[in-house]
What we know:
The protein has 21 helices and no strands.
Amino acid sequence: MKKQQSFVxxxxxxxxxxxxxxxxxxxxxxxxDALLGKSGMGLFNVxxxxxxxxxxxxxxxxxxxxxxMVSESASLGRTREARRIALAAGAAFPAVGALFSAALYWxxxxxxxxxxxxxxxxxxxxxxxxxxxxxxxxxxxGYFQGMNDMVPTAVSQLIEALSKLLLGYGLAxxxxxxxxxxxxCAAAAVLGVTIGEAVSVLYLLVRACMHRRRPVAVLxxxxxxxxxxxxxxxxxxxxxxxxxxVMSLTNLLDVALVMNRLQDAGWTAEQANALYGAYxxxxxxxxxxxxxxILGLSVSVLPVLSGAFARQNFTQISRTVGAAMxxxxxxxxxxxxxxxxxGEPIVDLLFGADSVSAGEFLRILGLAVPLLAVVxxxxxxxxxxxxxxxPVTHMIIGGVVKLAGNHILIGELGIYGAPVSTVLCYAVIAxxxxxxxxxxxxxxPAAREALLPPLMAALGMGACAxxxxxGFAPVLGSHVAVLLAIAAAVVIYAGLLRLLGxxxxxxxxxxxxxxxxxILLRL
Length: 523
């Protein structure tokens, strides 16, 4: 039971950290946007896009691979091997990160010119060392996650976010006050990101040294050689990296396809750009927010399942998968339904009345929120089961469906074809992942148990929220009405979950202070 308790508690730690990081990120972006303006933020974003592309190629699968292998070794009592995995990864992958950092630094000018913004070169150089830092961070985070300790990951994320906020904005402001060119001001803001990553590296290395000094019980002194461990690390990391690259490439092609199809349908280039901006910068940004919560569950469930699978503990596998799936749907379904019924007023509240079309896109994307949550969780489950290429195959199929859907539907529905094709994409990936999980394990809970109660509660919540908003809006205005409707929806959803028996005592006991929550909820 200890493993499962740490799974949900670890998820709670990561969820809290991820939500805080999102808030800090928003606080950072708003004043930075005012300081740099649209042109300066364009330079900042070009550097960030090139940086994240390098990260996907060099380190996307690394934390997953280290976490999975460390958990498997630790669960078998091979503490020495678990540490050797981290040392082997720490010797090899930061070297790869250093190569990509050098490529980004020395190739800043041609890469910036390639994406049509050569003035971004100073910002690209400023962020280049971060690729090396993230390689180190990924190894250490993966080790601690594999040991079922999510606190170092959470704290290091907060360090990065706070450093970006304080140093990034502070350096950009100082550069602006000194009258430096806009490109230098943007580079100063980006430098805050790099410093934040470096501070995070220092924190994690200190935690790793402190952890290494602790006495540990070695039940099995066997440890495979480093070359064998590196081969296995690559076998796990490469499919994850390919999957991330597939989705990144799909999104890149998606931009070109949507813009071209809109213009083929009769929109001008300027109109097409405005529509796609409303879709990508506002609707998609809101669509990705619930994944902040789901990601915590996926990251924390991977090492627990990997360890259970290594010991062939099928009882724990079934119990963990069931709890994770129920919690995922409990969190994702109300978010999706909330977007479906309150998409327009939510976007109006956050972005202003000129974003009505983005609210309509968000309503459609609400259907994809639980699908993406299931994809995220089942990806982790399949990786734990040693089937990392299965999600890649499904992502490729889903990407083809998305691109084909855009080509066909945008001609018929206009820009609305883009969110519809996104829903179809994640539906295909989720169906493929669920089929594969069911094929290799009978651990998935029945749909009647995991899906129907929270779905009914979410639909009831959505109906009440829509009625409350329509009643309050004419009297109090849209902004106040949507806030009241959301607050009421939270209470209504919790009550309906309790009424429909969707909350399981065994799941609540896995949460922090679970015994007290059971008493409070009378479970």
